[in-house]
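User: hey, got a sec? need Thoeris protein ThsB TIR-like domain-containing protein folded
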Amino acid sequence: MIDLFPEEDLATYKLFISYPKDCKDYNIFIERLNTATEAFNWKDVTDIENFAVGIDDCDVVVVLSGLWDDKPDMIREHIKYAKSFNKPIIVVRPYGLEEVPEELQEDATKIIGWNTACIVEAILQSLDIDLYDCPL
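Assistant: Yep! Here you go:
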């Protein structure tokens, strides 16, 4: 069988996900990325306690905006560091909702919903890699 996506040819994208790991939205997001496609390799470099190092090391910061009401100060800090390190900021709207806080809208490189293909595409496009065609 021909391997259309040989592992050695695929880049691994490092993501910092601005959300505590024990939250439902975080777990759903991780599950979706894990099943996204064999052509998208990624690594979670989220370190909530030493987030400056994680953000410095990442390729993209992903903000799951459903946390905004509970942890706006934490998200602001993550965004502040992301901007200081010139990292793209992908904001994922709360599941089933269209509204994103205005402050997040202003800082976002892209705002997307929970469609897995669009999540992958937004990450790749924010890094100037255009491999997928999905209307956002």
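Quick note: Residues 1-6, 132-136 have pLDDT under 50 and may be disordered. Let me know if you need anything else on Thoeris protein ThsB TIR-like domain-containing protein.
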